[in-house]
Amino acid sequence: MNGLRAEGGWYVDSALGDDGDPARLGSTWAALEVLNALGRLDSLPAADRASTAVWLRSLARSSRPLDQSGALARSFQLLKEPVPGTLTRIAEPRTDDFAHLTADARANRLADTYSYVLIQEAAGKRPGVNRQAWEPVLRDGAEALPYEQLYQLVHVLKGAGSPQAVFSPVLKRLDGERLDDGTVRDSDAYLGNPDASLFVQRLRALAGWSRKDPRLLAALECEEKSEDASQEGSERLNRAALRKVTASSDTSDQARQLCMDPQVLPMTVTEQNATQWQRTTLNCADAGASTGVPKIAAWRLDMPALAEAAATVVVGLADSGRQDSVPSWITADALRQWAQNPDRFTSVYGYALVVRAYSLLGGGLDTALRDALGRGLTPYKGCPGLPDLFQVGGGDAACDLKTTWAVWTLDRQLDSAMGWLPAGTTKNGK
User: Fold this and answer.
1) Contact predicate 28/11, CB 8 Å
2) Rounded Cα–Cα distance for residues 130 and 95 (Å)
3) How many CB atoms lie within 10 A of CB 171?
4) What's the half-sphere exposure (Cβ side, CA atoms, 13 Å) at 196?
5) Is 134 exposed, middle or buried (0-12, 13-18, 19+ CB in 10 A)?
6) What residues form DSSP beta bridges with 383?
């Protein structure tokens, strides 16, 4: 770490490509956290500690964004230096307007509140956070929030003194995403694995492009032969589905067996496992393996996460050719209010699934829905060099294969009425 230290007292991370104060502050905070984790912070030479503290105090004299103020306060805390009053006097971010914010604005407000909590904790104070405003956010978003936002929200409420029962939905989600080997997979992360490749192939199919890909097939064969290849049931099914759609091979006995295994494909669907069931059902469909109609428990549709779970059931049944088995309690009328209010969802993917389910159940593309789609989906189209892909949303500007699949599939279902599919795509995908 000494090699990253500048004479002025800050640390430099050349990978950031920026030598301004915000980049220096971020690097310094990270370096101090690493030294603390390694038990090396107390042995830092006194002169080095002093010069870093002097530099930090120079930054604290001027007003800064909350994320930088939080980094400053935590850095002072790590160095066992008092947190300047210019930081501790920062007011808690407001919550009275939270229900009217867009998904991106809500994510920014959460990030600001997290930084505010870091400041107060660094100063040895209990954060004056409005638990009544943030606890419902955790309750409604525990199933759908990205892990980073979930961490920030839990930290905020822990700091505010929320009781342990408030965090039960988070524990339930983590248990539901735990793999056989005990690790937890982020179900929203698709990068460099069969899941990601399957979504690429699904996008190719939607756009009418060929799914023949010798390099992808060679990579799959290499992974299958590797000793490191996961033997967890869902991972083996992913590989079987990818082989089927890429090589146009026959449906394997392994895929058929996995799609009948209740440890892989749940036989009873609840609001907690609806996503797991839907994505596994989609993989079975790609693998050419038939699936039965599961038992579907009924739940109330009075929260965004519950409406999204119901929509997930509808989409899963439709994609497996079982749309006539949608339970009677999931109707277009029940989903209309959710389809017309995109700001209530934390991700573009979740909102797109809700609108798709609403449309599958007979909901029409009227003026109100067009306006909602224009607010909830169109602004998230495109990333640098990827103009046709869609962003995750909820404060995450990265483009995402799964999100793009959900939006493209919706546009295909709406007869390309929204123009989200790539240019040149025909209505029948050919």
Assistant:
1) yes
2) 8
3) 11
4) 11
5) buried
6) 386
- Which residues on neighbouring strands pair with residue 381, listed in sequence order? 390
Adjacent-strand bridge partners of 269: 296
Q: Residue 249's CB: how many other CB atoms inside 10 A? A: 13
Q: Is the pLDDT of residue 180 over 50?
A: no
Percent of the chain with pLDDT over 90: 48
Q: Side chain identity at 316, as an amino acid letter? A: G
How many helices and strands (H and E) does the chain possess? 18, 5
| φ/ψ bin of 194: left (φ > 0), alpha (ψ from -120 to 50), beta (otherwise) | alpha
Whether the per-residue pLDDT at 157 is higher than 60: the answer is: yes
| Residue environment code for 285-307, b if the CB has 16+ CB neighbours within 10 A, otherwise e | bbbbbebeebebeebebebbbbb
pLDDT at residue 6, rounded to an integer: 83
Please state, in angstroms and rounded to a whole number, the distance separating the CA atoms of residues 270 and 359: 22
**Contact (CB, 8 A) for 29 and 122:** no
How many residues appear in the chain?
A: 430
User: Measuring CA to CA, how many Å separate 72 from each of 38, 57, 68, 121, 321?
Assistant: 20, 9, 6, 12, 55
Cβ distance 11 to 5 under 8 Å?
yes
389-401 pLDDT, tens digit each: 999 888 788 888 8
- Rg from Cα positions in the chain: 24
Q: Give the pLDDT score at 175.
A: 66
Task: Tell me the CA distances in angstroms from 132 to 37, 98, 106, 164, 346, one per residue in order.
Answer: 34, 12, 16, 15, 19
CA–CA distance from 316 to each of 82, 164, 204, 211, 286 (Å)? 55, 34, 20, 22, 12
> 3-class DSSP state for residue 228?
coil
H-only helix segments in 226-294: 233-247, 253-258, 274-287
Alpha carbon distance 144, 106 (integer Å) = 14
**Predicted confidence band at 413 (pLDDT cuts at 50, 70, 90)?**
very high
How many alpha carbons fall within 13 Å on the CB side of residue 258? 27
Question: Helices marked H in 5-146 — which ranges?
Answer: 21-37, 46-60, 66-78, 85-88, 103-122, 131-141
Report the C-alpha gap between 50 and 220 in whole angstroms.
54
Report the pLDDT value the prediction gives residue 430, as an integer from 0 to 100. 41
